Write a sequence for this structure.
């Protein structure tokens, strides 16, 4: 058996089972391209899936293929070592070597693979230039900002020309002030690289705008997958509904007096935001900031979407209402409000929220 022979499949396919002391992790992931956000609470098994794909954990059964090559197959006794899997990995804390320079860190994987010193340095310099880090080639990791360390880690991951990327909590090490800027940079970088990518996070909002599709893990299993809008509008369980919890739209932003106006990519809606922005953007609105009424209220800074109720679902002691507007929007209101308004499927309503509730984030890598 040729372990890295072609099986005719493209992209990344993962169907494995990993037995841990307290958890059975079962994962089925099909990723022909683009970025998959793998999300869930701590201990759900997300990082275990990444480690299995990277070859750092051996599954008890299953199969992993990438770009037509079989990386792991329990029935055929195939288990390629990490260095033969052609996968770039960015760890949660970036795992940079403090005693090496930026160039030394990026070249490390090449040197470990037997690439000569001169060629490794040349390729490392090219990768640093790709991420705008060539001016810091001689710096040590301790002197870099969080965003700079992430770019070095990405450069190290892609300098070996991998067939896929794995990113473990790439934004969690950053403070709140830095996270938004770095997320925007990361969205552009992933789009330019064009590699099948799995991005792990415990925060749904971290992957919105970065991932084309999102898979939610609970207790070792993927319980639902789809686009951000699909997960929000039709959660498969209360767990998924509680874990996701945001509306997400695509649009084009531009100035509108003291506010920013975003023309929706889906329909003729225009949203107003107090955030600054221009060009292609993602729009995040929390359901609990969306009000539901029978008639449109006044107010120049209000965003308004009208349509019939498509779905009503109880989430704890709250009610999640999906309005069939264009684009659809989800509101989360009290049980008392739902009863008072006489809400039910097909009832026409108006959903509104303030400009302060419209948050701008990076547009998704392959958003329409």
């Amino acid at each position: 058996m040729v372990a890295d022979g072609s099986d005719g499949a493209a992209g990344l396919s993962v169907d494995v089972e990993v037995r841990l002391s307290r958890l059975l992790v079962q994962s089925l992931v099909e990723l022909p391209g683009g970025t998959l956000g793998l999300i869930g609470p701590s201990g759900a098994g997300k990082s275990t899936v990444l480690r299995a794909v990277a070859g750092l954990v051996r599954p008890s059964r299953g199969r992993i293929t990438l770009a037509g090559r079989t990386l792991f197959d329990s029935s055929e006794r195939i288990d390629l070592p990490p260095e033969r899997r052609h996968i770039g990995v960015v760890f949660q804390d970036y795992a940079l070597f403090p005693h090496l320079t930026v160039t030394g860190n990026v070249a490390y994987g090449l040197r470990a693979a037997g690439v000569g010193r001169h060629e490794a340095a040349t390729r490392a310099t090219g990768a640093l230039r790709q991420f705008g880090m060539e001016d810091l080639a001689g710096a040590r990791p301790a002197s870099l900002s969080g965003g700079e360390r992430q770019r070095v880690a990405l450069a190290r991951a892609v300098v070996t020309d991998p067939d896929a990327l794995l990113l473990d909590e790439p934004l969690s090490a950053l403070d709140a002030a830095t996270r938004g800027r770095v997320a925007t940079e990361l969205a552009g970088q992933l789009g330019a690289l064009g590699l099948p990518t799995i991005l792990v996070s415990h925060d749904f909002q971290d992957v919105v705008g970065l991932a084309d599709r999102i898979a939610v893990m609970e207790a070792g299993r993927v319980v639902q997958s789809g686009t951000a809008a699909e997960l929000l509008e039709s959660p498969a369980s209360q767990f998924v509904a509680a874990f996701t919890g945001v509306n997400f739209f695509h649009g084009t932003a531009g100035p509108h007096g003291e506010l920013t106006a975003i023309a929706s990519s889906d329909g003729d809606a225009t949203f107003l935001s107090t955030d600054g922005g221009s060009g292609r953007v993602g729009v995040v609105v929390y359901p609990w900031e969306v009000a539901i009424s029978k008639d449109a209220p006044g107010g120049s800074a209000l965003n308004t979407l009208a349509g019939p109720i498509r779905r009503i679902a109880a989430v704890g002691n709250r009610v999640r209402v999906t309005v069939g507007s264009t684009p659809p929007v989800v509101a989360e209101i009290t049980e008392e409000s739902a009863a008072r308004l006489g809400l039910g499927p097909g009832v026409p309503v108006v959903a509104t929220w303030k400009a302060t509730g419209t948050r701008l984030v990076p547009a998704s890598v392959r958003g329409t």
In short: The first strand starts at residue 12 and ends at 19. Residues 25 and 220 are 4 Å apart (CA to CA). Confidence is low (pLDDT under 50) at residues 1-9.
